[in-house]
């Protein structure tokens, strides 16, 4: 990808959103809005964090939501993390894929790309104080849009027809 031709993901139809009150309740409402029982997706709390793993069959993604209470930190900073798997890390031409992925990731808005285990992950994190269901909705919709943009752009740059080769 030519450095002079970097593009940013174009996000349309989103507005500024005021915060809520209780992060856990906002997460539960976020799942309830999708006609899901939050307790069904709540996994065992890990080191001071509540974790939900929701499979959104309509969008074809597994969404992980962590509500980290900030326990163990000198100055606790509660956060909410959202993450979705993009695709498995290819071993063939890995350095080329990584270099192109990092260049494309520069165009992401409020999200980042990471490698976790054997997956490229698209994720975002926000302060848990006053997080609202509207903020979670906005971030999730933004992540879905950027997932498509990121993967389409990467696959095109790598010359892949569909998916990772």
Draw up the topology in text:
Layout: H1 23-33, H2 38-41, E1 42-46, E2 49-56, E3 61-68, E4 79-88, H3 94-105, E5 112-116, E6 119-127, H4 133-158
Antiparallel strand pairs: 1-2, 2-3, 3-4, 4-6, 5-6
Helix pairs in contact: 1-4, 3-4
Explain what this protein looks like in three dimensions:
By secondary structure, the chain is an alpha+beta fold. The protein has one domain: Yope Regulator, Chain: A. It contains four helices and six strands. The chain has a six-stranded antiparallel β-sheet with strand order 1-2-3-4-6-5. Strand 1 and strand 2 form a beta hairpin. Mean pLDDT is 84; it is low at 14-19.
Brief synopsis:
This protein is an alpha+beta fold and 165 residues long. Helices cover 32% and strands 27% of the residues.
> N-to-C terminal Cα separation, in Å?
19 Å
Tally of alpha and pi helices: 4
In what range is the share of β-strand residues?
Answer: 25-35%
Helical residue percent band: 25-40%
SSE series: HHEEEEHEEH
Number of domains: 1
Based on the structure, what is the oligomeric state of the protein chains?
single chain
* Strand elements, count: 6
| Strand line-up in the sheet with most strands | 1-2-3-4-6-5
The CATH topology annotation reads as: Yope Regulator, Chain: A
CATH architecture classification name: 2-Layer Sandwich
Global structural class: alpha+beta
CATH class: Alpha Beta
- The shape is globular
Please tell me how large the radius of gyration is: 17 Å
The overall pLDDT, averaged over residues, is 84
Query: pLDDT below 50 for ≥5 consecutive residues: which ranges?
Result: 14-19
Report the sheet with the most strands, covering strand number, pairing sense and barrel closure: 6 strands, antiparallel
């Amino acid at each position: 990808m030519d450095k002079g031709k970097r593009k940013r993901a174009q996000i349309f139809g989103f507005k500024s959103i005021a915060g809520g009150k209780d992060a856990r309740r906002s997460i539960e409402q976020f799942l309830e809005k999708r006609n899901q029982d939050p307790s069904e997706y709540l996994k065992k709390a890990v080191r001071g964090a509540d974790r939900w793993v929701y499979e959104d069959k309509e969008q074809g993604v597994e969404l992980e939501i962590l509500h980290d209470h900030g326990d163990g930190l000198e100055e606790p900073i509660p956060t909410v993390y959202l993450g979705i798997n993009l695709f498995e890390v290819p071993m063939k031409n890995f350095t080329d894929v990584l270099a192109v992925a990092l260049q494309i990731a520069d165009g992401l808005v409020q999200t980042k790309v990471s490698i976790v285990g054997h997956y490229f992950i698209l994720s975002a994190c926000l302060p848990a104080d006053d997080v609202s269901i509207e903020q979670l909705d906005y971030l999730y919709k933004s992540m879905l849009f950027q997932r498509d943009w990121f993967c389409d752009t990467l696959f095109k740059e790598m010359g892949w027809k569909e998916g990772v080769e």
